[in-house]
Amino acid sequence: MTKLGIILASARPNRVGEHVSRWVLDAVPTGVDVDLIDLREVALPAFDGTSSPKQGLPKETDHSRAWGERIDALDALVILTPQYNGSYPGNLKTAIDFLYEEWNELPTVLVGYGWGSAGEVLPLLETLMTRLGADVVGSVGLGFREDLSVEGELFVADEKASALRELLSTLSERSLAKVG
Ligand SMILES: Cc1cc2nc3c(=O)[nH]c(=O)nc-3n(C[C@H](O)[C@H](O)[C@H](O)COP(=O)(O)O)c2cc1C
């Protein structure tokens, strides 16, 4: 895996996602080039293309071209999502909607956090990414009380940390198989 993207979806000023991103970064094998993609900085507008990205027509705006190029440069992806009203935040859905072929066959791991170990958002996000052709390798859900506090203090059990490391290693294998 030469380039791993980590999408940080939450845009809140006091987001717990930032603490979760550090936990994920700690599990990334050394030597991997990481692009931490903060959707707050990417700051895409509401979807404004004149056609569905699935049609594959040239992108019409600077922001859609820049976003497409950033994802296209990745060999693998981790998406960090909070659980908002049982689903993913709207800005993550928008960022996903902006592209189509860039997600295709991209080896992807999902990391969710929320109450109930993010058990509502993870299957929804997996369905969405699979629909777009991403190669979803697996997911890890962190739960308030079990794995982290609502303020973002992490005390994740070893099993989940090992599960994440295993998924990252599978990502690496899948992305190498794609290249080779
Ligand atoms: C708009 C909104 C809706 C939420 N809905 C849920 C929910 O349905 N399930 C849940 O487990 N937590 C829910 N929460 C709590 C979030 O999981 C918690 O605030 C978490 O810290 C959000 O991630 P962030 O801090 O990285 O933004 C909600 C929070 C917000 C702001």
Automatic annotation (TrEMBL):
Report the Gene3D superfamilies cross-referenced here. Answer: 3.40.50.360
Database matches in Pfam families: FMN_red
What sections of the sequence does the record tag as coiled-coil? Answer: none
- MF GO annotations: FMN binding; oxidoreductase activity
> Origin, by domain of life?
Bacteria
Give the signal peptide range.
none
Question: Which stretches make up the NADPH-dependent FMN reductase-like domain?
Answer: 3-139
Q: Any idea what this protein is called?
A: NAD(P)H-dependent oxidoreductase
Q: What is the species of this protein? A: Brachybacterium massiliense
